[in-house]
Amino acid sequence: MNADTDITGEPNVRLVDTERRAGLHNLGDIALGRMTVRQHGDLWVLYNKAIDLMESYGAEYIFKDKIVVKYPASLSLDGWSSYWNPLNQHGYIKQGQFSTYTALHELTHKWEYDHCTGETGMAWQLVKHGDTHQTRENTTFVPFLESFADWAAVKMLQAMSDGKVKNFHDGWPYSHPDHPFNRTYIGGNLASEERNLANLDYTERGWYGLFNVLTFPYLDRVDVDRTFTDVNGEHHEYAFVSLFSPISDLKLGYSFKDVLSVFLTKPSKNIDAVLHTREMNFRDFMARGGKILPGLDDTKITQVKALLNPKVKTAATAVAAR
Predict the structure, then answer these.
(1) Residue 67: beta bridge partners?
(2) Beta carbons of 210 and 305 less than 8 angstroms apart
(3) What is the pLDDT of the chain when averaged over all its residues?
(4) Helix crossing, 204-215 with 282-292: angle to 10°?
């Protein structure tokens, strides 16, 4: 083992195999910079915290099998990013994309693949369309899985830090990751003629908005027809929250674990299979959630859909279109 420095001046560790043995191929010298070694250690610590978190929720929630992640992964196709392969169950984090957000987003895909079916369709959608982050997808299950990976990543971060860390430092798309969207923003990735509830579950914004509505603790104070303002000014993506009085009687406040439970089998609730891609639309997902989540009855489901509908006004009294 010899040591020298890389172009940044940091020492490299060079692993040199000078002997040829049966079953081995000589790949030459492998240079490991100090930063790469540290990042591998960071991944080890982060992923073990995530494993511990899921184990704390119970046996139904754990990651299945071993977690295999490759970093840095040299992805040769232009435009391809880090991903978790649903076919071999391995993660690939691209050179230059190392961050806590990316690591947890991709790990969440692993959790999804362990607790739902039909996930290989993600690979086919990627091959067919070259992307799984289109503003309006061709299916509802692709934005569901991608948006859930975003949403669950921040919930994992918050849970692993006992609530002390609220958001990612780098790469995170939302400044207020727990806050419901306002009506204008949530439908903004749809063409004007498509801007209704029936199309919203083809977008990541629609699904992320749903997850936040299910878990926001002050839902009775939310007005999605107005804009949220804090000490830093207006935030045009988010819904207004009243500080003084309720706007409706809608209260949910489900936990991260509660939402994860919608993926699972619940024989006592007549749910004998894990979540399937055909259920990853607003109607079927909410119907499944209504069987599993305490208090989520038909009236509240209608109110939730009204809060999400980019076309409806007066969310507290509107009847959902779907």
Answers:
(1) none
(2) no
(3) 84
(4) 20
